[in-house]
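Why run this: before we spend reagent on co-expression, it is cheaper to look at a predicted model of the complex and decide which construct boundaries make sense. The entries below are exactly what would go into the expression plan.
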Amino acid sequence: MMLLRADNITKRFGGVQALDHVSFEIAEGETVGLIGPNGAGKTTLFNCINGTLPIDSGRLYFCGNDVTGRKSYQMTALGICRSYQVVKPFRRMTVLQNATVGAFCREKSRKAAENTALEALRTVGLYEKRDEQGAVLNLGESKRLEIAKALSTRPKLLLLDEVMAGLLPAEVKAMSAIIKGINRAGVTVILIEHNMEAVMTLSDRIIVLNFGKKLAEGTAADIAADKAVIDAYLGTEEEENHAYN
Amino acid sequence: MIKTFLKRQNAVLWIIAVASIALPLLTDNRYYQDIIIMTFLWTGLAASWNLYSGYCARLSIGHAAFLGIGAYAAALLYTNYGISPWVGMIAGGLLAGLVALVIGGSTLRLKGTFFVLATIAFAKIAETFAITAKWITGGSLGVLIPYAPGFINMTWQSKIPYAVLAWVYMLAILAVCVKVEHSRLGYFLRAVGEDREAAENLGVNASKIMLTAFVMSAVFTAFGGSIMAMYVMYIEPTSLMSMTNSVQFILLAIAGGLGTAFGPLAGAYVLVPLTNLMRGNFPSVSGLHGLLLGLILIAVLLYRSSGILPALKGFFEKRRKGDMG
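The model came back. Tokens follow.
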């Protein structure tokens, strides 16, 4: 059985067709990359999957159940949680408290919630920073806190929105290892990423969006060789040279 | 000493709160006793306000309405039907909770400024209702509560029992606030206050959480209103439900430290005695206490916008770092 099935998801903002009959399936345990040029509808797709935005038409199935129209807190309770591209730490709460908010999704007592949160902080390497205020973290740490918060809700499906953007090469490497670890622990991952090297190595499969439509889907090798993807997004060497001249 | 203060900051504040009951016993002066009672009462009231507005960062400038509901419920049931004010207090709490459910429910979707405006309108409506609905409230003349001392009537000759009552009220509210701060509700409230979307993404049902806190805040405020009415023995709509009273909640909580359990205590313990003494000692300069309140608030906002309590904490932390270095 598929963990997530999106069936003709459509979303329109005024005159802009942000998502145009997008369909795909995610199997349990997969890591799937979601790539495409800016404005392709990647983040909108995340917003629609986790219930932040209502979809105009189409259906969404999670664990075989129709979950179309659920709100984001309900999606989180079901097991879908996302991280934000523009980090949203709770600035006046400590790192541990930030993650504990997520853990309270499944735990009633503070002790139990804090244990879950601490575990998540260890996973992303923020355990040492647990007593710092959310406001003082640098970008790399904030991105990791985003993941820890989402992880604290014990998701089945984790949506990661550009968690590598703006990171140094060494940090990208560490982040890749963290994501691999989370996936190995049994969490299915969809990641939006512009860092091609990272997304190609991490993903079992890649989905390419362009102008709100699914352009291609396949393994990293398939995608790298796909003519349509190269034209729309990856580009060719000649083109690049042409652009410089 | 300073280290233990930091570690046991709440313990020190608890000791201050509990030990303050000695104050009204130390003096025979009814004027000072009155100030102490008002300080206890306003600590509890500001803490009630803080429970919603402080933690989830949505300013209500309409809490005087809940104060009024509590005051009128106790006063009217007692004066007109001879029902014990203790029962009236419960009735007032229930009514305030019901009203909060409606007001809170219908304003959930309103963002910052619009929510503030809605609460101001709500207080104005409550005040106008109290003035015009003469057959219920006695109109703008107010309600004069008959003097018949006795525990069952929540009326005493001495001020000490009132002080004890206000003190118990204050401690009860503080205990609830501390409990909430360390619970799921408190974590969720603060998260919603900082970023509603991010909180909902972590599984927080923001509407439910906000409504819960708003109702709690209203009920506790109404309890305080009942005590205030029985203590003053006279209530009158325009002063009880005035903007000045609504703003008093906010001033005390902001000056003390928004969204901290003991912030309202710090604010009320400093500002209530200060303004009362100003009013008492310089009666010729009318409005002096208002001016002072304004100046203190400006100073707090300029120097340390997080409030008196966090400022004290910061001061001790610096000292501690100095000690170690």
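The beta strands of chain A are 2-13, 16-27, 31-35, 57-62, 65-66, 80-82, 157-161, 188-192, 205-210, 213-218. Chain A has a mean pLDDT of 91. Bring this page to Monday's planning discussion.
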